Amino acid sequence: MVVPLGLIIIFVFMWKLKGEWTGAKGEKFDSVGSLVYALAIVAIMYGASSLLPAISGFWIILIGILSVLAFVRWETRLKSPVFQLDLFRANKVLAFSNLAALLNYCSTYAVIFLMSLYLQYIKGFSPQIAGLILASQFVVQAAFSPLAGKLSDKMEPRIVATAGMSLTAVGLLLLVLIGSTTSVGFIVVSLILIGLGFAFFASPNINAIMSSVEKRFYGVASGSVGTMRLIGQMIGMGIITLIFNIYIGRVEIRPHLYPAFIAAFKIAFAIFFILTLGGIFASMVRGKLRLAGSDAGTTEGTSERSQRRV
Fold first, then answer.
1. How many of the other CB atoms lie within 10 Å of CB of 15?
2. In sequence order, what are the residues at sequence separation of 6 or more whose Cβ sits closer than 8 angstroms to the Cβ of residue 182?
3. CA angle, corner 146, sides to 269 and 193, nearest 5?
4. What proportion of the chain, given as a percentage, has pLDDT over 70?
5. Which end of the chain is more exposed for a tag (fewer CB within 10 A), N or C?
C-alpha cells in the first residue's frame, strides 16, 4: 500500500508542482547524490535492523558507510549539491543543533518499543492497558510543545532545548533502574519526564535550526531535521536489535528469557542515557542565536544575525 501511494504522490508532484525555486533558480537537481544517499540509508537500515549480528549485517553496514563517504565526497565537488555540507561547516548553530537532534531521536525513538514489550511481557498488561500507560508520554509532549515553542521565541532556544534534553536524560536514567517489580507510578513518572523533555527540546531545536540560516537555505535546514530524525531512529532501533540478538537471540520472548530481556532492557537504556548526555553537550555548545539585548524578532532577522556570527 505504501509503494503505490508513494508513486501517486510523486506523479502528482511532477504534474502539478512546477517548482518554487526561491533563491535556487537555475540550479540542477543532484540525482547522483540523491541515489548514493538513498543507497547508504537503505544499506545501513537493512544491515542494522535485519541482519545483525550476522557477519553479512556488518558487510552491508560497511557498504552503507562507504556510500556515505562517497556521498560526502561527491557533494563537496558540486556547485549545486542536494545537501549543502559547506553550510554546516560554516554554521555552528546549525551543525550542533542537528547533532543534538540526531542524538535525541536516537535515544528516545525506541522507548515506546521497549516499554511496550516490558509492560506486556514482564508486567503482564494487555496491549490496551500498556497503550494507556505509554500514552502518558505523548499527552505531556503534546500539551507542552506549544509552550516550549513560545519560550524559544522569547529566550535562547539552546537554553530551553538543553533543559528539555536534561529532563529526557533523567527519565531515561530512571528507566535503567526498572526491574520486574517496579511500580506503574514509577514507570509513568519516567515516561512523563521523557515526554516533557522531548516537548521542550524538539520545538526550540527546530526553531534554532530554521532561524540559523538565510531564507534560501530553509529547504536544506528543514531537510536536515528530517534526515537527523530518520538516521537517529534507525540507529536507535539498530542498537536494540543488536543488544537483543546478543542477549536473547532471534527467538520469541518466553518466560524463561525474561531475565535476559530485563538485562538487555537495562543495557539499552543505559546506552540511550549516555547518548543523551552527548546531546546535552551538543545543545549547550551550539552558540547563541541572538545578540545580547536584541528582541526575539522575526526568523529572517534572526537568521541574518546568526549568519554574521558564524
1. 8
2. none
3. 25
4. 86
5. N
